[in-house]
Amino acid sequence: MSPQPQAAVGAPLSRVDGRLKVTGKAVYAAEHDVDGAVHAVIVDASIGRGRITSVDTGDAEKHPGVLRVISHRNAPKLPYRDNAGSNNPPGRRLRVFQDDRVLFHGQPVAVVVATTLEAAQHGASLVKVRYDAEKSSTDLHEAEPGRPTDYARGDAEAGLRSSAVRLDLTYQLARNHHNPMEPHATIARWDGDKLTVWDKTQWVMGTHDELAAVFDLPAESVRVINPFVGGGFGSGLRCWPHTVVAALAARETKRPVKLVLSRKQMYFGAGFRPSYEYRLRLGSDRRGRLAAAVHDIDAETSSYETFTEAVMGAGQMLYSMPNVSQAYRQVPLDVNTPIWMRGPGFASASFVIESAMDELAHELGIDPIELRRRNEPREDESSNLPFSTRQLRECYTVGAREFGWQARSSRPRARREGDWLIGLGMAAGVYDCGRFPAEARARLDADGTAVVEAATSDMGPGTYTSQTQVAADALGLSMRTVTFRLGDSLYPPTSPHGGSATMASVGSAVVDACDQVRQQAIKLAVEDRESPLYRVDAGDVVVRGGRLHVQGNPARGETYRSLLARNDRSHLEARGNYAGAPSPARRSYFAYNATFAEVAVDAALGLVRVRRMLGVYDAGRIISPKLADSQALGGIVGGIGTALLEHTVTDHRDGRIVNANLADYLVPVNADVPEVRAIYLDGEDNDGNALGVKGLGEVVQVGVAAAIGNAVFNATGRRVRELPITAEALL
Fold first, then answer.
1. Do 127 and 248 meet the contact criterion of CB atoms below 8 Å apart?
2. Does residue 559 share a domain with residue 462?
3. Is the peptide bond before 322 cis (omega within 30 degrees of 0)?
4. Over the stretch 189-236, which tens digit does the pLDDT of each residue have?
5. How do the residues of the chain divide into helix, strand and coil, expressed in percent and rounded to 5?
6. Nearest-5° Cα angle at 175, 174 to 178
7. Residues 592, 722: one domain?
8. Beta-strand (E) ranges in 98-242?
9. Is residue 210 part of a domain?
10. CA 350, CA 366: separation in Å to the nearest integer?
11. Which of 37, 398, 709, 715 is the most buried (most CB within 10 A)?
12. What's the CA gap between 645 and 640, in Å, rounded?
């Protein structure tokens, strides 16, 4: 079969939805114009643990405009069917207004519904809640961890004892919050027993299924709409309690209800990257060949759900070593449940592992890149599977050349420019890209235009654009004649929009649907006596610019429009699917990077400034270079935040988050972001999926914090094992 021409895929195209976004015409969750919508504001618990003894709603109910105040005292009992498939961790998910228990500071304890937002806000301030408070546990270092998840190969303790060089290092990683520009928001409307919600979510079908489970509704009675997401970073990967509150309030008031979390409520109304205490004991010979590693990992979770993430993966397969032992313990605390945040698990583990590798390189007097090369595995030693593709050595080579690594001195504090100490650092990164089942629908209309639909989301990576590129090439159409629709549970179901899975999963389903439509058209043409393509071998026909023609003979052919018109067909349609990752796995499927950083540290003040960064990526086929650059920049900026700025501060007396605002929870701004460059290695991972992609959205943040930390050590000689790296730690 002749390959389809590729005109859109690989081209640096601007976003198809860019004009809507820059002109303010893109409609986000809280902006949908739903007739008769009223406003809801949640009342948050002011204790960290205990019971509600009374809820005084009298003053709130008297306030002009207030329609209803709902709490556990008057809320109906909700079914809350089990629903483990919607990213709900093991445990008993929070059931809003179903009892008097308070499990964390900020838990919803009431909701005020009013005709205006101002009335709802003031009404919420008038609700008086009394508690029987208990001592809360919110400190990772003082709570008792749960039973560990273990991994082992070889004998790590014996390997350590026999190692010529041993390191025993403990790292502390602060909790991080996603802080997207768009707050979480829901508009809920009931039409009889049918529920429609406009919701900020990264998984339309997950929210759909959770609402059906909570209210015990048949699937066809729930619709979730989500055409645009104003940033997510993982915060929208499950249905949070406020969405249920909005739907409940709408049913009780018989009015559409809009509920928008405040910036403060975002810190406990949605999840976060959990804090870690991570001890790593590492052993090697004098040449730097790794012999053993023992990982002891403690991470926070809530008291009512056990959240886990892939923090163990990198330690099992990134480097070759015969002896590995891991114990990953969740520490139940009186906090809301964490959730995945960009590069989940791997980003946290990479700071520890890649910092430790830098420490080992310094101890041995070996260049950090050379140390990593000496420990490059031939296969995935955690699964004994061959790598699908692994160009990490090439990432090192290209990165070192392009960044000027040869100018780095192995001696800390060797380079100074006035008051500034200059250092270079690097780190490797790896991410286990997701491949999940997905479906898509493609329709080619008689006018030669096409519509492709899938119930995925677009939180910023450019899903509208990249899927349009894939569809346009598969159909042989120009970008302007293809419309990709997403963000509606009425469309074919897809996997979560996260885990670097969307391009591989949804993209593969889109290719399948469009290929089927194109083949339908080709079959129609070669069997049509009036077609110039009559009796041509179908495998010799390609489509370009909406015109079917013989490969190598563009003059012999016809357009989709003429073919469908002559055959009296209003459209051709097909539903495509992607089954997800093969089971059992045939290959070890990961994306890789090498990240390089140059920092300047004020010798007197300890201030750290990142001066330039480079990321080199082995991410398979790049569908859209322009979007890829956007992803790389965003991931590096997020990594700068983790390395130098982001840190949740909790008052352990009552579990209150002290810096729950963007004035005190610091994130990188323009002045913090240096010159950033991204390089993508050639190569397609054809074992992974039909498109040959691996995904880029997650791996771009993995290793960034470690590269910066290693550069800080090179500049100052001070090793900081706690994130974020603050001026105080360097003084």
1. no
2. yes
3. no
4. 999 999 999 999 999 999 999 999 999 999 999 999 999 999 999 999
5. 25, 30, 45
6. 130
7. yes
8. 101-102, 108-114, 128-133, 149-153, 165-173, 185-191, 194-199, 222-225
9. yes
10. 20
11. 709
12. 7
Q: Which domain holds residue 39?
A: 32-136+181-231+236-269
Q: Which amino acid is at 29?
A: A
- Token pair, residue 602, equals 């004020």
**The two structure tokens encoding residue 511:** 């290719």
d(CA 731, CA 726): 9
Over residues 565-570, mean pLDDT: 98
- What are the tens digits of pLDDT across the range 10-51? 999 999 999 999 999 999 999 999 999 999 999 999 999 999
Cis? peptide before 584, omega within 30° of 0: yes
pLDDT of 1 reads 66
> Could you tell me if residue 165 is inside a domain?
no
Q: For 583, which DSSP code? A: S
Summarised one tens digit per residue, pLDDT across range 132-188 is 999 999 999 999 999 999 999 999 999 999 999 999 999 999 999 999 999 999 999
Helices (H) then strands (E): counts for the chain: 17, 30
Is there a catalytic annotation at residue 698?
A: yes
* Residue 315 domain flag: yes
What are the structure tokens assigned to 122, written together?
A: 């003031």
Task: Report the length, in residues, of the chain.
Answer: 731
- Strands 608-618 and 675-680 turn out to be parallel
Strand-pairing partners, residue 723, are: 173
Q: Are 455 and 494 in contact (CB under 8 A)?
A: yes
Q: In this structure, are 648 and 702 located in the same domain?
A: yes
Query: Where do we find the tokens 């790049």?
Result: 622
Residues 565 and 680 in one domain: no
Catalytically annotated residue among 144, 381, 698, 728: 698
pTM of the model: 0.97
CB 710 within 8 A of CB 427: yes
Contact between 497 and 463 (Cβ < 8 Å)? yes
Residue 9 lies in a domain: no
Task: Judge if 129 and 206 occupy the same domain.
Answer: yes
Q: In degrees rounded to 5, what are phi and psi of residue 388?
A: -65, -60
Note whether 599 and 676 are same-domain residues.
yes
Domain-terminating residue out of 578, 610, 635? 578
